[in-house]
Amino acid sequence: MTDKSYFPGHLRRLSGISLLVLLAACSQSEPPQEPEQPAAPAAELSDDAIDLIIEGDYVITMDDSGSVIQSGAVAIDDGLIIAIGPATEINSAYHANGHLEGSNRVVMPGLINGHSHAAMTLLRGVADDLDLMDWLQNYIFPAEVEFVDDEFVRIGTELACWEMIRGGTTTFVDMYYFPDMIAQVVEQCGLRAYISATVIDQRSPDAESAADSLVKGRSFIDNWKGRNSRITPIWGPHADYTLNAKQLSETRAAATAAGVPISIHMSESPFELEYSKNTYGMTTIELFESIGFLDGPTIGAHVVWPTENEIKILAERKVGVIHNPTSNMKIASGISPVTEMLNAGVRVGLGTDGAASNNDLDMWEEMRLASFLQKVSTMDPKALSASTVLRMATSGGAEAIGLRDKVGALEAGMRADVIQVAFDDVHFVPTYDVISHLVYVADEQDVASVTVDGRLLMRDGEFLTIDTERVKREATELAARIQAALAERNQ
Ligand SMILES: [Zn+2]
What we know:
Layout: H1 7-11, E1 50-60, E2 68-77, E3 80-86, H2 87-93, E4 96-100, E5 105-109, E6 111-116, H3 132-147, H4 150-166, E7 169-176, H5 179-189, E8 192-199, H6 210-224, E9 231-237, H7 245-258, E10 262-266, H8 270-280, H9 284-290, E11 298-302, H10 308-316, E12 320-323, H11 325-330, H12 338-343, E13 347-350, H13 363-378, H14 386-393, H15 395-401, E14 418-422, H16 434-440, E15 447-452, E16 455-459, E17 462-463, H17 468-489
Parallel strand pairs: 1-4, 1-5, 6-7, 7-8, 8-9, 10-11, 11-12, 12-13
Antiparallel strand pairs: 1-2, 2-3, 5-14, 14-15, 15-16, 16-17
Helix pairs in contact: 4-5, 4-17, 6-7, 13-14, 14-15, 14-16
The chain binds zinc ion.
């Protein structure tokens, strides 16, 4: 899992301290050589220095053994975590060009938002308190056809990236229109993303039909595959009620040919359940299994209504299920049997869904609500504990989307997607249990710093890759135009 070939060069920078802080992979590397160079002043850029050291009162690794390091630090160079351990040892082993202090800070892996429609931030609050199909067919789909273009997607995605960085999300799985524009924004803002080419068999903002969206999706995937290691173009067939079985199979074939995953809405609502039974004589996931749609990496968003047999299929097929508790509650889609799925060995991560059905992109809230929803639905306060739900938002989410070898945990050799949570605010006082506070107290305003691939995107609340004033101005202007047009239409 770790890139062992990476270690030798960095081990030369060690100053003879105990190597215990380094992970096991190091022991198989060539022995460290004693460095001759004197300690460089911290402020001076040095060729021998690594890029960044991030410290914290606690480092929550989310590795398989769940280790937590008190007064710890993470050493980062060339986009990778190269060592992790007690801060005193890391600081004497490495000189870094950048340094994030750890007082009142908790260090952990960045959060993984497994299902979003990022640009829908611009439709935040445009229509609330409606049934899913009424909301989709009478408000969202028509508003999208009327207003969503390249520019809408640029501004909406920038707004979403700003909010996700604010809240400590470092990876997201997106499904929306004009994916080339989404990818350009993500390239710029520095986040990591799976970006879907949406396939839907109706007139949409960027295509006329499923056939048209397949053609356009192919060109998007060709354009972005292998271009930026942070950006993975994938296929995003919308759902089994907006595509027929043949179109679903065609999309899977295209994904297999390109060697990329699929993200799809799956078993979300009672409407979908009825539609599938009436149209195919079986429920959604059984249909997918029967047509070979699950023959390849699949990320299924929602999965609120799986049957016992379908849960077995999800586990066997290693489908990554993304639970979206806020959206499921707000649209009254139902309560996903997350506890049952986890017990059956299904890989379950968390997502926000779009900001039109949430109405924010706060993964801390998703953690909290996921836990509470399982507790109240099973009438068992032990259901979905804080540590289980924190895993779903980090390493478990990474596994669900097929990125566990790169992100989701703080381990030497992993990509350096690391956040610091500030424990300064009154709601953290006192702190008996850090994991409990992360899940039951923290929210997106508490995140202090965000690093993706070793690059700082936010430092002490300051955004380093997004011009937030410009984005706010552009979003406000565009929303005013949408509001005026809606008012005119509804006269
Ligand atoms: Zn969705």
